[in-house]
Sequence to fold (178 residues):
Amino acid sequence: MFDKLTYKNKNRVMLVLAVALLYLVYKLAVSKTVKVYNDFAYLKSQVILSKNIDTKLDDLSKQLNAVEGIFKSSITSGNNSQEKILETVTNYCKQKPVLLKEFPKSMMKETNGYLVELNYFTVEGDYINLLNLVYTMEQQIKVGKVASVKFNLKENQQTKQHELTATIYVQNLKRIDS
Fold:
Protein backbone atom coordinates (compact mmCIF):
# COMPACT_ATOMS: atom_id res chain seq x y z
CA MET A 1 0.00 0.00 0.00
CA PHE A 2 2.80 2.48 0.86
CA ASP A 3 4.96 1.22 -2.00
CA LYS A 4 3.03 3.12 -4.65
CA LEU A 5 3.20 6.45 -2.81
CA THR A 6 5.83 9.03 -3.46
CA TYR A 7 8.15 10.22 -0.71
CA LYS A 8 6.19 13.43 -0.46
CA ASN A 9 2.91 11.60 0.06
CA LYS A 10 4.55 9.14 2.47
CA ASN A 11 5.78 12.06 4.57
CA ARG A 12 2.28 13.55 4.64
CA VAL A 13 0.75 10.26 5.77
CA MET A 14 3.48 9.86 8.42
CA LEU A 15 2.81 13.41 9.65
CA VAL A 16 -0.94 12.78 9.93
CA LEU A 17 -0.32 9.48 11.74
CA ALA A 18 2.15 11.16 14.11
CA VAL A 19 -0.37 13.89 14.98
CA ALA A 20 -3.08 11.27 15.52
CA LEU A 21 -0.71 9.22 17.70
CA LEU A 22 0.23 12.30 19.78
CA TYR A 23 -3.45 13.13 20.28
CA LEU A 24 -4.16 9.53 21.32
CA VAL A 25 -1.23 9.52 23.79
CA TYR A 26 -2.37 12.81 25.29
CA LYS A 27 -5.96 11.62 25.71
CA LEU A 28 -5.05 8.23 27.19
CA ALA A 29 -2.13 9.13 29.46
CA VAL A 30 -1.07 12.75 29.73
CA SER A 31 -4.51 14.31 30.31
CA LYS A 32 -5.11 12.06 33.32
CA THR A 33 -1.71 12.99 34.72
CA VAL A 34 -2.41 16.71 34.28
CA LYS A 35 -5.80 16.32 35.98
CA VAL A 36 -4.25 14.46 38.94
CA TYR A 37 -1.52 17.13 39.23
CA ASN A 38 -4.11 19.95 39.27
CA ASP A 39 -6.14 18.12 41.92
CA PHE A 40 -2.98 17.63 43.99
CA ALA A 41 -2.10 21.35 43.75
CA TYR A 42 -5.63 22.33 44.84
CA LEU A 43 -5.62 19.92 47.79
CA LYS A 44 -2.16 21.10 48.82
CA SER A 45 -3.40 24.72 48.90
CA GLN A 46 -6.40 23.62 50.98
CA VAL A 47 -4.07 21.91 53.48
CA ILE A 48 -2.04 25.11 53.81
CA LEU A 49 -5.23 27.11 54.36
CA SER A 50 -6.50 24.63 56.96
CA LYS A 51 -3.29 25.03 58.98
CA ASN A 52 -4.08 28.73 59.46
CA ILE A 53 -7.77 28.16 60.18
CA ASP A 54 -7.32 28.19 63.98
CA THR A 55 -5.72 31.63 64.02
CA LYS A 56 -8.29 32.97 61.57
CA LEU A 57 -11.10 31.52 63.68
CA ASP A 58 -9.66 33.17 66.80
CA ASP A 59 -9.36 36.51 65.00
CA LEU A 60 -12.94 36.29 63.74
CA SER A 61 -14.27 35.40 67.19
CA LYS A 62 -12.42 38.40 68.68
CA GLN A 63 -13.94 40.65 66.03
CA LEU A 64 -17.38 39.18 66.72
CA ASN A 65 -16.99 39.78 70.46
CA ALA A 66 -15.94 43.37 69.79
CA VAL A 67 -18.97 43.97 67.57
CA GLU A 68 -21.30 42.33 70.11
CA GLY A 69 -19.79 44.55 72.82
CA ILE A 70 -20.59 47.63 70.78
CA PHE A 71 -24.16 46.50 70.21
CA LYS A 72 -24.69 45.42 73.81
CA SER A 73 -23.98 48.96 74.91
CA SER A 74 -26.75 50.24 72.65
CA ILE A 75 -29.25 47.40 73.13
CA THR A 76 -31.81 48.17 75.77
CA SER A 77 -34.40 45.85 77.22
CA GLY A 78 -37.22 48.20 78.16
CA ASN A 79 -39.04 51.17 76.71
CA ASN A 80 -37.29 53.67 78.95
CA SER A 81 -34.59 54.84 76.54
CA GLN A 82 -36.45 58.05 75.68
CA GLU A 83 -36.97 58.77 79.37
CA LYS A 84 -33.31 58.09 80.11
CA ILE A 85 -32.22 60.42 77.29
CA LEU A 86 -34.61 63.13 78.50
CA GLU A 87 -33.33 62.75 82.07
CA THR A 88 -29.71 62.96 80.93
CA VAL A 89 -30.32 66.06 78.80
CA THR A 90 -32.37 67.73 81.52
CA ASN A 91 -29.69 67.16 84.15
CA TYR A 92 -27.03 68.48 81.80
CA CYS A 93 -29.12 71.56 81.01
CA LYS A 94 -29.44 72.28 84.75
CA GLN A 95 -25.65 72.15 85.19
CA LYS A 96 -24.57 74.05 82.06
CA PRO A 97 -26.00 77.04 80.18
CA VAL A 98 -27.73 74.83 77.61
CA LEU A 99 -31.41 75.12 76.66
CA LEU A 100 -33.53 72.18 75.52
CA LYS A 101 -35.57 73.53 72.61
CA GLU A 102 -37.27 70.46 71.17
CA PHE A 103 -37.75 66.82 72.16
CA PRO A 104 -40.23 65.06 69.83
CA LYS A 105 -41.56 61.53 70.11
CA SER A 106 -39.16 58.74 69.14
CA MET A 107 -39.38 56.93 65.81
CA MET A 108 -39.38 53.11 65.65
CA LYS A 109 -38.57 50.71 62.83
CA GLU A 110 -38.43 46.91 62.89
CA THR A 111 -35.40 45.37 61.15
CA ASN A 112 -34.02 41.80 61.27
CA GLY A 113 -35.46 40.84 64.64
CA TYR A 114 -34.56 44.17 66.24
CA LEU A 115 -36.54 47.29 66.87
CA VAL A 116 -34.49 50.35 65.94
CA GLU A 117 -35.50 53.37 68.01
CA LEU A 118 -34.37 56.82 66.91
CA ASN A 119 -34.64 59.71 69.35
CA TYR A 120 -33.61 63.21 68.43
CA PHE A 121 -33.72 66.50 70.21
CA THR A 122 -32.52 70.05 69.71
CA VAL A 123 -30.52 71.99 72.26
CA GLU A 124 -29.16 75.52 72.21
CA GLY A 125 -25.92 76.77 73.74
CA ASP A 126 -22.30 77.46 72.98
CA TYR A 127 -20.23 75.02 70.95
CA ILE A 128 -18.12 73.61 73.80
CA ASN A 129 -21.13 72.88 76.01
CA LEU A 130 -23.01 71.24 73.14
CA LEU A 131 -19.98 69.15 72.27
CA ASN A 132 -19.58 68.14 75.91
CA LEU A 133 -23.24 67.06 75.96
CA VAL A 134 -22.63 64.81 72.96
CA TYR A 135 -19.51 63.39 74.63
CA THR A 136 -21.37 62.80 77.90
CA MET A 137 -24.20 60.99 76.14
CA GLU A 138 -21.94 58.88 73.95
CA GLN A 139 -19.01 58.03 76.20
CA GLN A 140 -19.95 58.52 79.83
CA ILE A 141 -23.65 57.78 80.28
CA LYS A 142 -24.08 55.67 77.11
CA VAL A 143 -27.79 56.24 76.59
CA GLY A 144 -27.45 54.85 73.07
CA LYS A 145 -25.40 55.29 69.94
CA VAL A 146 -25.12 58.92 68.92
CA ALA A 147 -25.81 58.43 65.23
CA SER A 148 -25.55 62.04 64.09
CA VAL A 149 -25.20 65.61 65.31
CA LYS A 150 -26.26 68.59 63.22
CA PHE A 151 -25.06 72.01 64.29
CA ASN A 152 -26.95 75.06 63.05
CA LEU A 153 -26.03 78.71 63.54
CA LYS A 154 -28.84 81.25 63.10
CA GLU A 155 -29.20 84.93 63.76
CA ASN A 156 -32.10 85.82 66.04
CA GLN A 157 -33.96 88.65 64.30
CA GLN A 158 -35.28 90.12 67.54
CA THR A 159 -32.04 90.23 69.54
CA LYS A 160 -29.65 90.41 66.54
CA GLN A 161 -27.47 87.73 68.18
CA HIS A 162 -26.28 84.42 66.84
CA GLU A 163 -27.79 81.25 68.30
CA LEU A 164 -26.07 77.88 67.94
CA THR A 165 -28.32 74.84 68.06
CA ALA A 166 -27.47 71.17 67.81
CA THR A 167 -29.87 68.45 66.76
CA ILE A 168 -28.61 65.20 68.27
CA TYR A 169 -29.80 61.85 66.94
CA VAL A 170 -29.53 58.90 69.35
CA GLN A 171 -30.14 55.37 68.14
CA ASN A 172 -31.08 52.37 70.30
CA LEU A 173 -31.60 48.71 69.42
CA LYS A 174 -34.16 46.56 71.15
CA ARG A 175 -34.57 42.80 70.72
CA ILE A 176 -37.96 41.71 69.56
CA ASP A 177 -38.98 38.80 71.77
CA SER A 178 -40.62 36.19 69.55
About this structure: The domain at 76-175 is CATH 3.30.70.60 (Alpha-Beta Plaits). The chain has four helices and five strands. The two ends are 88 Å apart (CA to CA).
